[in-house]
Specification:
The complex is a heterotrimer of chains A (256), B (324) and C (316).
Chain A: E1 7-8, E2 19-28, E3 31-41, E4 46-50, H1 57-64, E5 72-77, E6 89-92, H2 106-112, H3 115-118, H4 126-138, H5 154-167, E7 172-176, H6 184-199, E8 203-207, H7 214-217, E9 220-225, E10 227-233, H8 234-237, H9 240-247
Parallel strand pairs in A: 1-10, 4-8, 4-9, 6-7, 7-8
Antiparallel strand pairs in A: 2-3, 2-5, 9-10
Helix pairs in contact in A: 2-4, 2-5, 4-5, 5-6
Chain B: H1 3-38, E1 49-53, H2 56-66, E2 70-74, H3 89-97, E3 100-103, H4 113-121, E4 125-128, H5 155-172, H6 177-202, E5 211-216, H7 220-226, E6 229-234, H8 244-257, E7 261-265, H9 271-282, E8 288-293, H10 308-323
Parallel strand pairs in B: 1-2, 1-3, 3-4, 5-6, 7-8
Chain C: H1 2-15, H2 17-42, H3 46-67, H4 72-96, H5 101-126, H6 136-139, H7 147-166, H8 168-176, H9 178-183, H10 188-209, H11 211-227, H12 233-255, H13 263-281, H14 287-312
The chains are: A alpha/beta (256), B alpha/beta (324), C mainly alpha (316).
């Protein structure tokens, strides 16, 4: 178990953050996956979560949504518990977590994003279909609505997932490695969408693997290695020192 | 998945398994007790010949011939299907510990053939009560050369089986061979009366109704001996699945010939006969289930149908009543 | 002559009591297991259906032990309860120990089935009228189906379909992306349990026709065949149900042509044949068309290559 003195920058008392995490610990069997995380996500930011393998990055966003059991601590979304605020949060899971051979098309997947609003009793209808189509257009896949998802490229699949999140019209986006292994067009498209969302005041939290691009794409960073290493604006926190602490070995990253 | 739910589920399964095995052991003990009580206690238990048999028809036979000199353990009770019977470890033990083993033969005990060979090799006297029946008297059903094993429903053939038992007992226990012969004579007389009686009763059935429809082909010998045409859904072994075709053909024939009744058997599920009944009724003919017949086993010990003679009479009376 | 036979048998479905209800009961099974089997296949839990069916066997024995009756409904209840136990135990093993699903399935399947055989063996020795033929639940005894049986099966199947229709989108999302579904607030664990329960009902329906041992093929094969032709979930369910239903009816018909033909296995052979045809001939995925496509592609490539080489080497 590691004890780091974590750097917290720009935290304000009394303010309601999109996501507040207090003393969060998550244990799998006997292994601590996350230890005593104290964290606020600031509104209207593009936030990267970075750390080595096994650092608990995916676990962190899953814990926010209650997808993994929390051993200790709590999470608030705009001051209330997550279960009361579901409609404000959209989840974009890792591409590999799904079997793309499933018999369905791109439009159908995006429509799934609206199932929450439909609730138990209502069925997908022309309205949901229309909204889904619009979201597909936004990610540049308007012509691919009827395409079998198994026939889409990795980047296209990722964009479908993003479109699905867009359909939810959330305030907060929780994304797990969406830029991993995608083509240039996809990366560009997704980033420009996220940029626009940020301008609208949405909060985007992304588990990101490529340290080279962190300072290019993001405003805020969370550096994690089971416990919190550092969090804050990129310019202040994304330092060689913190990186070494997080990765516990020298990282060859050029920092501007 | 809550660990507690899993633990509860496993616990329930284990408890039920435990209860079942306890009931099993209990019932085994009970069978032994019943045998003890029923065996005549005029001689010391340790002096009695230990005989193990398969079906309770044979149990009845051996008790009739052996009288107070034998203590018989039957593996199969009333309502047990001998065609499908798989011997348990305790069954094999009972066979090994016996002084003499009597079984039917002709593959009635379809799943036990190897066991008898093994026991015989180990030195126990093993007798198939059907072994002396002349080939001409045996009926064959299919082209594989197998014979129908249900010989006991022909009283005359059963006399041959009784003789085998007497021979077997006398060979093992020559001292008492006179007793065995006397018992045999008496039993043969009873069988003779039964035979004549049954032939007489059957005459009261009108000729067009002299058809016996049952769940499986257990009554070929019976039919041959007492003037009934025999038809069944399953063949002479219940091993095979009852087929749609058989039910259709039988239903057609029963309807055409306006046969009054069909019969269920004590050791077989009535489902197939009920399906036949429904098929016939759908064809517009009002057939009924005429009663329950003892086919592969006789009744519960202590009841009137718990003896060969009693069960035989029950069958004849039931058939006559239904088809008259 | 043969044509005459086929026509007679075909009309037999409507006119002959036995064939009518056997075909109907088998069709009900085929339709239900075909539709629900799609989910087991898509959830990669095909053998889970096998574990559930084998687990039903001791339930039949115990129902008989306690109720002492061959009352069909009570036996089905026992089967359902134990099939459900089997499901819980399997899932419990995977979630609380390190044992992976395939091993957990194997363990559950053999333990429950073994327990079932022990019970049946014990029951055969106690006799008592009508226990005979609990064996029939191993491979089914379709020929014994009568009107009331089929009515009961129909009600069970209707219940399954009501659940399927009401919870269709929930089952879809729980199968495709359960984490996402959970994030929307759908209790995917309970949905899984509900789906398992409906599959248990399908297994109970199948007891009469194909029995415990063959049931798994009725869950997997129609779905696998339908997948070859269809790429939307709803249509896959529909086609799978149709395939299942057809195999039930055709299997019954075929088994009624000869004496001594078991119905359950013939139904299984029929649906497997449908699968074989689908694998060979389906336009997008079938072997035949893939072969033709590859050949065409090869020919096209050869032509292109030779025309290119002619351009670069005009003299050859």
């Amino acid at each position: 178990m590691m004890e780091h003195k974590s750097e917290h920058r720009n935290l304000q008392e009394g303010k309601v953050y999109p996501i507040e995490i207090r003393n969060l610990s998550v244990t799998y069997r006997t292994e601590p996956a996350l230890w005593n995380i104290d964290l606020n996500f600031p509104e209207g930011n593009l936030i990267a979560i970075v750390g080595p393998n096994g650092a608990g990055k995916s676990t962190l966003i899953k814990a926010v949504m209650g997808l993994v059991p929390i051993t200790a601590g709590k999470v608030n979304v705009y001051g209330k518990s997550y279960s009361k605020q579901r409609s404000k949060v959209a989840y974009v899971p890792q591409r590999g977590s799904v079997d793309w051979d499933f018999p369905t098309d791109a439009l159908d997947v995006v429509e799934m994003g609206l199932y929450g609003k439909l609730g138990w009793l209502r069925r997908p209808n022309s309205q949901t279909r229309k909204k889904a189509r619009e979201c597909l257009e936004k990610v540049g896949l308007g012509d691919y609505a009827d395409r079998q998802i198994g026939q889409l490229s990795g980047g296209q699949q990722q964009r479908v997932f993003v479109a699905r999140a867009l359909a939810q019209d959330p305030q907060i986006y929780l994304m797990d490695e969406p830029l991993n292994g995608v083509d240039a067009i996809t990366e560009e498209t997704i980033l420009s969408i996220l940029e626009n969302l940020r301008k609208e005041g949405k909060t985007i939290v992304m588990v990101h693997h490529d340290l080279q691009t962190v300072d290019k794409y993001f405003d805020w960073v969370v550096m994690l290695n089971r416990s919190l290493v550092a969090t804050g604006p990129i310019k202040e926190v994304f330092t060689k020192e913190n990186l070494d602490k997080a990765y516990q070995e020298k990282q060859r990253v050029s920092i501007r | 998945m809550k660990k507690s739910i899993l633990i509860v589920a496993i616990a329930i399964v284990i408890i039920i398994a435990g209860i079942s095995s306890t009931v099993l052991i209990q019932s085994n003990n009970n069978t032994d007790e019943v045998n003890m009580i029923n065996a005549e206690n005029t001689a010391n238990d340790s002096e009695k010949i230990m005989v193990t048999t398969t079906t309770n028809v044979i149990t009845d036979l051996v008790e009739n011939i052996g009288g107070e000199h034998v203590r018989v353990t039957g593996l199969m009770g009333p309502g047990v299907d001998p065609h499908l019977y798989r011997p348990s470890a305790s069954d094999v033990k009972k066979l090994q510990e016996a002084d003499i083993v009597f079984y039917n033969g002709l593959d009635l005990e379809g799943k036990m053939g190897d066991v008898f060979v093994k026991i015989g090799r180990e030195g126990t006297a093993v007798w198939a009560v059907s072994e002396n029946i002349p080939h001409e008297s045996l009926l064959s059903l299919d082209t594989t050369g197998h014979f129908d094993p249900h010989i006991w429903w022909n009283a005359e053939l059963w006399m041959e089986a009784a003789k085998v038992v007497a021979t077997g007992l006398s060979e093992y226990d020559p001292e008492n061979s006179q007793t065995y012969d006397a018992n045999l004579e008496e039993f043969l007389t009873q069988l003779q009366n039964l035979n004549e009686n049954s032939l007489e009763k059957m005459k009261s059935i009108p000729e067009e109704q002299r058809v016996l429809v049952t769940a499986h082909d257990a009554f070929q010998y019976f039919g041959h001996a007492y003037g009934l045409e025999e038809m069944a859904i399953q063949g002479w072994s219940t091993d095979s699945e009852a087929g749609i075709r058989e039910i259709q053909n039988l239903a057609d024939e029963i309807t055409e010939r306006k046969i009054k009744a069909v019969f269920v058997e004590t050791s077989i599920s009535p489902a197939t006969i009920e399906a036949l009944e429904a098929a016939v009724q759908d064809r517009g003919h009002d057939v009924v289930i005429g009663g329950e017949l003892f086919s592969d086993a006789i009744g519960e010990k202590g009841t009137s149908e718990g003896t060969y003679i009693g069960a035989f009479k029950h069958n004849v009376d039931t058939i006559v009543r239904a088809l008259k | 002559m043969v044509l005459e036979e086929i026509v007679t048998i075909f009309f037999g479905i409507f006119t002959d009591y036995t064939l009518r209800y056997v075909a109907l009961g088998s069709a009900i099974l085929g339709i239900t297991s075909g539709a629900l089997g799609c989910f087991t296949v898509l959830r990669k839990q095909s053998l889970f259906g096998d574990a559930l069916s084998h687990a039903a066997l001791p339930g039949i024995g115990i129902a008989y032990l306690f109720a002492g009756t061959k009352d069909s409904l009570f036996l089905m209840l026992g089967a359902a309860v134990f099939a459900w136990f089997g499901g819980i135990v399997t899932l419990g093993i995977t979630s609380t120990t390190r044992i992976k699903q395939d091993a957990a399935l194997g363990i559950t399947l053999s333990v429950f089935f073994g327990l079932g055989i022990v019970l049946l063996t014990y029951l055969q020795s106690t006799g008592g009228a009508s226990q005979g033929g609990l064996d029939r639940f191993l491979f089914g005894q379709a020929a014994a189906l009568i009107e009331t049986d089929v009515l009961n099966l129909g009600i069970l199947a209707a219940g399954c379909f009501v659940v399927l229709i009401v919870f269709f989108k929930e089952f879809k999302i729980a199968t495709f992306d359960s984490a996402f579904g959970q994030s929307l607030g759908f209790p995917t664990r309970y949905l899984s349990a509900l789906l398992t329960s409906v599959i248990v009902v399908a297994v109970v329906i199948g007891l009469h026709t194909v029995g415990v041992v063959l049931m798994v093929s009725m869950l997997i094969t129609p779905a696998a065949a339908a997948r070859q032709w269809i790429s939307s979930l709803k249509n896959m369910l529909i086609l799978s149900a149709i395939f299942g239903g057809i195999s039930g009816v055709v299997g019954s018909m075929i088994s009624s042509t000869t004496e001594g033909m078991s119905t359950g296995p013939i139904i299984v052979i029929t649906i497997t044949t449908i699968l074989g045809i689908s694998l060979m001939f389906s336009p997008k995925q079938g072997y035949l068309f893939q072969y033709i496509r590859k050949k065409r592609q090869y020919q096209n490539n050869s032509k292109t290559i030779s025309s290119i080489s002619k351009e670069t080497n005009p003299r050859s």
